[in-house]
Design a protein that fits this description.
The protein has one helix and nine strands. The protein is of the alpha/beta class. The protein folds into two domains: 32 residues, no CATH class; 95 residues, Cupredoxins -  blue copper proteins (Immunoglobulin-like), CATH 2.60.40.420. The longest helix is centred in the N-terminal third of the chain and has 28 residues. The structure holds copper (II) ion.
């Protein structure tokens, strides 16, 4: 009886832990995996987004590490529901999304950071 219980427990653990772990590792391996991309944000006067063109593949899980280098900035990529809010000077915020559609999509700063705030933008390119 105790042996049976232990066997049942092992099966339950295998299902509860094993299946999510298998799914997660499959997702990480599949379709190019996940990319960590560091995006440095400066005012448009100081060069703007770096890189200002980000190229990924459709289906890719993308993680952007957003560093507001000089002043407080924001980051919006609204086609993918991404809005980092305010990123304080010298700090990093991380956002994640799945590039589930192809095309070119603008991203913007969402915090009034300088006289050229409106010019602070970049492009996400999702290739098939
Ligand atoms: Cu701005």
């Amino acid at each position: 009886m105790r042996r049976l219980e232990r066997l049942a427990l092992a099966i339950v653990l295998l299902v509860v832990v094993g299946i999510p772990a298998a799914v997660l590792s499959y997702q990480a391996l599949g379709r190019g995996g996940r990319d960590d991309i560091l995006v440095v944000i400066r005012t448009a006067e100081r060069g703007g987004f770096s890189p200002s063109r980000i190229v990924v593949r459709q289906g890719q899980r993308v993680r952007l590490r957003l560093l507001a280098e000089d002043v407080t900035h924001g980051f919006q990529l609204l086609h993918f529901g991404v809005d980092a809010g305010a990123i304080k000077t010298g700090t990093i915020k991380t956002v994640e999304f799945t590039a589930d559609k192809t095309g070119e999509f603008p991203f913007y700063c969402s915090v009034r950071c300088s006289a050229l705030h409106m010019a602070l933008m970049g492009t996400l390119i999702v290739e098939p």
